[in-house]
Amino acid sequence: MSASNSPPREWLALAALFAGATAIASAPLFVKVSETGPVATAFWRVFLALPLLWAWAMSTQGARLVTQVRDHRVLLFAAGFFFAGDLAVWHWSILLTSVANTTLLANLAPIFVTAVTWFVFRETPQRLFLAGLAAAISGTLLLIGASFGQGGSALLGDALGVLTAMFYAAYQLTVSRLRANVPTASVMAWSSTVMAILLLPVAWLSGERILPLTDGGWLKLIGIALFAQVIGQSLIAWAMAHLTATFSSVGLLLQPVMATLFAWILLGEIVGPLQFAGGVLVLTGIMLARQGSARQPAK
Known about the structure:
Elements: H1 9-24, H2 27-33, H3 38-47, H4 50-61, H5 64-71, H6 73-96, H7 99-106, H8 109-119, E1 123-125, H9 127-144, H10 152-178, H11 184-205, H12 215-239, H13 245-251, H14 254-267, H15 273-291, E2 295-297
Antiparallel strand pairs: 1-2
């Protein structure tokens, strides 16, 4: 294909972002049916992906892997720490509330991303972006519907979903800055190694079941590692190098829409008119944010 017929890199990044969001949308389904505890499932998701991630990093970076971790060790550790916190809290949330609730609340990260980039990094988004963000957040509230705010375990699950969003926002901001100097393969290999080191002792200390009971249980763990960690997160990490952090966080709101759809088809979770309308609003918000994601200095 000639260069003139090739799609712009920005549109390739956009396609990678949406494909990655769809791949991660399968994660709650694997967690729901996993034979191990929620944090243990998070550990296996990362640990089983490490051979593929390191093979990728070594084939493309070679000896530069050592230099990269030396020069960017703080950010690489931070990325692993924030994502480990994200997965540990999110997997508990998945078991306590519906797939729709937990994925929607976890993807409220744009609120925190925009707040940090605006007030800390002095990057003011355009009004059209804010309109898209408002539409996307309104869509998430419609998708949550009447089940939001219920007492008991559902309420705790919703609260953990919001905490997940805070961890995820910190991870997105860290990766966005890392990718200015560190290739995707290196980010994924080093940060995932940090995650595995952090998640295993947490799972063990919490008394969770660490090993699955059947061969089918191992297949489920391999599935979440392949789709959610290797394919999904790698596509997103690459895309974030070519898109703004604020727009990337809103584009990832496609994840709860797809997760809700998967849960409806595979787990029988009902999706009513409000949830459908919310999904349309989320997608509308993504498109508006895409048009208004350019940033300007704060005054």
